[in-house]
């Protein structure tokens, strides 16, 4: 199958000009490669500030890349004209973290759900009745009561709003969906509902999903593959079970250790050190790494296979047996 | 707290606001239909009744507001003047709003050097004593209705530009504009269909501030003789015409002066009220 999304060597940094001296440069995404197949969900995890959201925007062409290419549904995003890019957006959707902010406060949500059909007239929903029928269908798909369609966003609950945003994203039948922390702003019971809905959508629509989250438990429920990001780089990638059950990279293990669990005697590993400056050379995780050796400070680890589709960017990744212990 | 709210509710709309609203309605009706019912033409002369005093000062009902030095009926002239002055102020305010809003949106959309240029123009305009600019412009260009209207329109644009730019930047931060962009909506659609309705409340409050100022600018320039030209008339021109006879016939200045004063005051009062209400709305969230 041809992937719906292919990213090659993506780089993006943010600069802030200073009156005197050189600009502040903050690298957000550094050399990311990834692929998403149709019907597949790729989870992207990492701590806040690691470049997850920037990556999501780069993948949809909402932010220009410094270098590297994104190919989506056979189109190289940088080469498209603005009009073609807008047209392509019918097939690639973004779901934001904050559903209230993503909705116009002064229009009924039903109108907003159907608006992409007016934006993308080439999809052929020319008549009012065709649009209404399609709107009915997506409302059913996200299990939203049609009565709510006449309400304004502030009259809905958080879960209902996220359903509205999902319905709006789905109405054009996108083939790629980037979900940027879609459930982080919701409480746990509503999270479960939305996750159930997303699972159903993934199975039914056959769209490729990119699921960005800092919450490993949520990612485990939905993702087929997981990519772990640290400081703008993918440090570990592979099937969800492989990465989350037998993590090879010290950072993935640190992340996993930070998930609270109800096992008696289990204590959350906390880490107080926060390192702001990038190391000049070597592994960017080395300053925080418990297993860092001399070589880590000088040599740059490249993402390479450590068995099947599982790959890791660590010079001294422990063997599988060691982890099982 | 509960007591305070009940007291406020009991007080209802203050009488000053009721009067202001009443006056504005009267003035609007006069401006719309008044000239058709005016007893005399604007320049119709009644030489037998020059300097006739108003009714309450010993005049007759033939000329309820008195007449001027060549026997023109002040009441009929006043109704026509109100129509022209209100029309100019309204159109002038709208022109300023449209120019300012469009430039404000352009600045907020493109950022970069385009924004720098527009905001520099805004600062330039704000730093300029406008009446001097208007006098110069009217001296250079042919003084006609449209030139004059354009100058009135330009008078307040910089404030709309500044306001709209700030509001649009805020709307972009809110996320709904960004979300629509990611759905593939054309920027024109986002601005006209989504951002504009969201910021219109604040813009219309700015219009109520701008409107009385436009009336005053129009009357001021007409008083100086570089605004509306005879045979047309405006409130400022009436005051200007009556000025030489202020000691013989004070009504020639008093009636148009009162009309200017009451209209600007009324719009300001109602605008204040609108602003308070808008503030309450923003405070709620």
UniProtKB/TrEMBL annotation, chain A:
Chief site of localization: membrane
CC annotations in GO: plasma membrane
Taxonomic lineage of the native organism: Bacteria, Pseudomonadati, Pseudomonadota, Alphaproteobacteria, Hyphomicrobiales
Keyword Acyltransferase belongs to the record: no
BP GO terms, sorted: peptide transport; transmembrane transport
Keyword list, A-Z: ATP-binding, Nucleotide-binding, Transport
Residue ranges of every copy of the ABC transporter domain listed in the record: 5-256
Species this chain originates from: Roseibium marinum
Descriptive protein name: Peptide/nickel transport system ATP-binding protein
From TrEMBL, chain B:
Keywords: Cell membrane, Membrane, Transmembrane, Transmembrane helix, Transport
Gene3D superfamilies reported in the protein's UniProt record: MetI-like (1.10.3720.10)
Keyword Membrane on entry: yes
Domain ABC transmembrane type-1: 82-271
Membrane topology: Multi-pass membrane protein
GO annotation, biological process: transmembrane transport
GO CC entries: plasma membrane
InterPro entries in alphabetical order: BP-dependent_transpt_permease, MetI-like, MetI-like_sf, OppC_N
Annotated SUPFAM superfamilies: MetI-like (SSF161098)
Transmembrane regions: 20-42, 86-110, 130-155, 190-209, 245-270
CDD domains: TM_PBP2
Location in the cell: Cell membrane
Tree of life domain: Bacteria
Keyword check for Aminoacyl-tRNA synthetase: no
Annotated family: Belongs to the binding-protein-dependent transport system permease family.
PANTHER family for this protein: OLIGOPEPTIDE TRANSPORT SYSTEM PERMEASE PROTEIN APPC, PEPTIDE ABC TRANSPORTER PERMEASE PROTEIN
Identification of the protein by name: Peptide/nickel transport system permease protein
């Amino acid at each position: 199958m041809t992937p719906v999304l292919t990213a090659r060597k993506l780089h993006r940094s943010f600069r802030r000009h200073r009156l005197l001296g050189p600009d502040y440069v903050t690298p957000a995404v550094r050399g990311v490669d990834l692929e998403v197949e149709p019907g597949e969900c790729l989870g992207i995890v990492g701590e806040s500030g690691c470049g997850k959201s920037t990556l999501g925007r780069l993948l949809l062409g909402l932010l220009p890349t410094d270098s590297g290419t994104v190919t989506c549904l056979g189109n190289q995003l940088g080469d498209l004209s603005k009009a073609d890019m807008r047209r392509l957006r019918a097939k690639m959707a973004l779901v934001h973290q904050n559903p209230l902010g993503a909705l116009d406060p002064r229009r009924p949500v039903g109108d907003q759900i159907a608006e992409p059909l007016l934006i993308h007239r080439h999809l052929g929903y020319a008549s009012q009745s065709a649009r209404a029928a399609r709107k009915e269908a997506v409302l059913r798909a996200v299990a939203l009561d049609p009565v709510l369609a006449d309400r304004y966003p502030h009259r809905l609950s958080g879960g209902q709003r996220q359903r509205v945003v999902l319905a709006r994203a789905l109405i054009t039948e996108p083939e790629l969906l980037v979900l940027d922390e879609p459930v982080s702003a919701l409480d746990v019971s509503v999270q479960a509902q939305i996750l159930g809905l997303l699972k159903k959508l993934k199975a039914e629509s056959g769209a490729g999903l990119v699921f960005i989250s800092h919450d490993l438990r949520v990612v485990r429920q939905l993702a087929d593959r997981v990519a772990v990001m640290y400081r703008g780089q993918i440090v570990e990638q592979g099937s969800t079970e492989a990465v989350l059950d037998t993590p090879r990279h010290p950072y993935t293990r640190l992340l996993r250790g930070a998930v609270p669990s109800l096992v008696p005697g289990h204590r959350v590993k906390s880490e107080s050190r926060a390192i702001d400056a990038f190391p000049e050379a070597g592994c960017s995780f080395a300053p925080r790494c418990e297993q860092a050796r001399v070589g880590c400070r000088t040599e740059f680890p490249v993402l390479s296979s450590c068995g099947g589709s599982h790959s890791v960017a660590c010079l001294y990744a422990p063997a599988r047996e060691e982890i099982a212990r | 707290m509960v007591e305070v709210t009940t007291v406020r509710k009991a007080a209802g709309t203050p009488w000053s606001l009721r009067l202001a609203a009443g006056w504005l309605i009267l003035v609007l009706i006069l401006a719309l239909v008044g000239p058709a019912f005016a007893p005399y033409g604007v320049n119709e002369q009644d030489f037998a009744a020059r300097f006739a005093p108003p009714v309450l000062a010993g005049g007759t009902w033939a000329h309820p507001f008195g007449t001027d030095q060549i026997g023109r009926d002040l009441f009929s002239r006043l109704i026509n003047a109100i129509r022209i002055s209100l029309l100019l102020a309204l159109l002038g305010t709208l022109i300023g709003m449209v120019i300012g809003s469009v430039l404000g949106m352009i600045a907020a959309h493109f950022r970069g050097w385009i924004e720098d240029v527009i905001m520099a123009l805004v600062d330039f305009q704000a730093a300029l004593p406008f009446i001097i600019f208007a006098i110069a412009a009217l001296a250079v260009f042919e003084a006609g209705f449209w030139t004059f209207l354009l100058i009135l329109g330009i008078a307040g644009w910089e404030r709309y530009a500044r306001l709209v730019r700030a509001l649009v930047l805020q709307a972009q931060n809110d996320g709904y504009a960004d979300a629509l962009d990611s759905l593939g909506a054309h920027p024109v659609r986002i601005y006209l269909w989504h951002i504009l309705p969201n910021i219109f409340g604040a813009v219309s409050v700015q219009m109520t501030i701008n409107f009385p100022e436009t009336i005053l600018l129009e009357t001021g320039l007409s008083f100086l003789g570089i605004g509306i030209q005879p045979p047309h008339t405006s409130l400022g021109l009436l005051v200007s015409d009556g000025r030489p006879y202020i000691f013989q016939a004070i009504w020639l200045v008093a009636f148009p002066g009162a009309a200017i004063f009451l209209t600007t005051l009324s719009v300001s009062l109602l605008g204040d009220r609108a602003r308070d209400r808008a503030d309450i709305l923003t405070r709620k969230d």
